[in-house]
Input
Amino acid sequence: MRAPATRATKARWQALRLGALDAHLLSPVPRTRLSGPRRFLAEFVYFGIKEARACLFVGLFFAAVFLVPRQGLPGLPRYDVLLVLALAIQGWMVWVRLETLDELKAISVFHLVGFALEVFKTSGGIQSWAYPDFAYSKLFGVPLFAGFMYAAVGSYIIQAWRLLDLRVEHHPPHWMAALVAAAIYANFFTHHYIGDYRWYLAACALGLYARATVVFRPLDRERRMPLVLAFVLIGFFIWLAENISTFFGVWRYPNQLGAWSAVHVGKWSSWSLLVVMTFTIVANLKHIKERIHVPA
Output
């Protein structure tokens, strides 16, 4: 009976330490002595720490991806081990209140949306990429852990929103944002049949969010960035993570079956559009929607 209590105590202690870190990062105490290069360096460091903290689920999940051996663990293939670890990480974050149940619901939507896309892209008639290894938890040829790669993006946005005290100014009407997000998602399917309208959709998104500005607080002062630039930057880092994942053989594109090669840079645009869609879902969470300004 002692072991569970010990594990529970350790988990709570870790949560308290993370809570103390978050409280420090969220502190609005003015740093009046900072100016010039020292202020720039301090804000840069704090911004990096907050970004790293927002990537908690992403970091733990991809650490598992890279550390679990290709052959898995005794009696359990790699993809199944990754599913168990992903569920454990997600459950722990909710249990220690790093994420709320409402946020978990949104992350579950990302999981389902991403998994449906994975099933289509890996199907026999499409074969955009493949999961070559065996797993008990494969459904329609896709391991269930795959949806967590999309959920990780949603988790990052939710965590970053809180830690950077984000708000958005001049956000387009939510119904317009939802329409563009739905069209972006549909294009991932339809471009195999009626042409790729990615760049037309990118132009629509650019026009829609042209005036939108994200306001964030790396330290004690608010800074501003075009929301479109944030979409592009997040898409770039996802593209980098995709290159690392394919290098470790988690999945393969057809051109990587013989020998690994870098993922085509065109995927960067796809990921950036997917970030737009993910952001739209996150923006409809009640506590986040309150911090989004939509001009009348």
